[in-house]
């Protein structure tokens, strides 16, 4: 039952007006990026596009642009090679995942 409670709480987070709506692929990409960030990895755009082999690189790139427009990610140019851009989290991303952490805590209660 706690998994269902968690799913309901997650849906409530997604429905908050503080966060723009994401489609399923955008959410999956953001979660995949978060796992990489949590592991301390820098995520170049090309590497992020390769994380999702079941979606075309063009589709992933469009979703990355959408996530950027929604304020969930930002790009940071590499200091040595300005052709390389890293995907970084934004304050909104940290706020979003903090809300999810609250849901996890609440689902355990």
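Sequence proposed for the structure above (109 residues):
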């Amino acid at each position: 039952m706690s998994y269902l409670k968690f799913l309901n709480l997650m849906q409530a987070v997604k429905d908050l007006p503080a966060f723009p709506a994401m489609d399923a692929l955008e959410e999956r990409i953001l979660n995949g990026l978060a796992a990489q960030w949590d592991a301390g990895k820098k995520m170049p755009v090309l590497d992020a596009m390769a994380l999702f082999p079941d979606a075309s690189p063009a589709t992933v790139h469009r979703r990355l642009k959408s996530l950027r427009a929604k304020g969930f990610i930002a790009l940071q140019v590499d200091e040595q090679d300005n052709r390389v851009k890293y995907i970084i989290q934004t304050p909104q991303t940290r706020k979003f995942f903090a809300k999810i952490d609250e849901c996890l805590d609440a689902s355990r209660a």
